[in-house]
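PROTEIN–LIGAND DATA SHEET

This sheet pairs a single protein chain with one bound small molecule, zinc ion, given as SMILES. Inputs appear in the order they were entered. The predicted three-dimensional arrangement of chain and ligand is reported afterwards as a token string under its own label.
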Amino acid sequence: MKGDFSFPTTVIFGAGRLAELPQRLHALGVRRPLVVTDPGLLKSEAYRVFERVKGTDWPVFSEVHPNPVEADVEAGARAYRVGQCDGVVALGGGSAMDVGKAIRLLIRRPEVPLSAFDFHADWSGLPPLVTIPTTAGTGSEVGRSSVIIVGGEKRVIFHPALLASLAILDPELTLGLPATLTAATGADALTHCIESFTSPVFHPLCDGIALEGIRLIAEALPRAVRNGQDVEARGLMLVAAMMGGVAFQKDLGAVHSLAHPLSTICGMHHGTANALCLPVVMEFNARRKPGLYRRVGAALGLREPTDAETIERVRGLLSEIGLGPGLSRFGVKATHLEALTEQAYADGCHRTNPVPVTKEDLRALYEQAM
Ligand SMILES: NC(=O)c1ccc[n+]([C@@H]2O[C@H](COP(=O)([O-])OP(=O)(O)OC[C@H]3O[C@@H](n4cnc5c(N)ncnc54)[C@H](O)[C@@H]3O)[C@@H](O)[C@H]2O)c1
Ligand SMILES: [Zn+2]
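PREDICTION REPORTED AS:
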């Protein structure tokens, strides 16, 4: 047995902690950060909260698309240079945070486009980054990856240098997140915890974090969906989503391979795509590896659960938050299956699925999830 264990990001958590941003930037040596966000956020309650602490001379780049594309990162890097910035504040969900993370690669090496990203190049000395999530889902605030559509496919650009210098988790920023997005992003966090716990790499630290994340999500997600103003549930969800992001440094699985093409080809939200694929993948995995989900079931509050009971509980939780089954309800058609399957198979996440999956398996899983 061997392992590499690393939990490097400083995280500050609590209602009102966003107020510490100016002093924290100062401590990082940042005078003029580029704020990276998306157009939806500019109109949100969260942005009003952010404006209370924002420096008047901080440039704002707000052109990030949901499921961001390479051009977003390039445009953000231009804004950084024009604004003569010396750091990045990424405010938003995974989309804004991932673009904020990746902009720094183009600042460090303007000659290397994202499509030619080379893990082995020297990426030391990226500008400082503060991540401020406004959804409780991706965990990108503490992650080593940036997920960007490059050449028509979701690409997971991975490098430890992408890590944020600091993450600020302030539940006041998620109070206004609509119920549908609360549910979808929360389902992403749940999927991160379940897939990372059951992926086969030896990482008992991540396993412990993932199980506690599952417990917190089962408690807090239905509450946050029912009552967006429940600041305690919002806080627990932010922490649980961050824990999911920490846990999946271990790895993900086939659910994410199925979900990525649903976003690129069918424009589906990443969390929704995960939610609709999670139960069928769990059934597939449990048939081949009986007992795989017992501890997940225990974390969900069941006593001595079977795999079937655990999967039922996950289905129940997803239905309770409005994410019952049916890809076809989201515009996915039989004619999409070929392209979806090709991209899902090319996606790297399923290589760390608890059991191997073939291209035919992926297609069958899509069909079941329809
Ligand atoms: N880097 C990683 O480790 C990682 C992990 C999982 C997912 N992802 C990626 O993250 C992206 C999804 O991120 P997401 O699920 O957070 O959604 P998102 O960032 O795409 O945001 C979705 C929508 O929610 C709105 N929004 C966000 N916060 C809000 C708030 N507080 N109030 C009102 N509206 C708000 C945004 O304006 C946007 O329209 C996908 O591209 C996915 O592939 C990355
Ligand atoms: Zn995800």
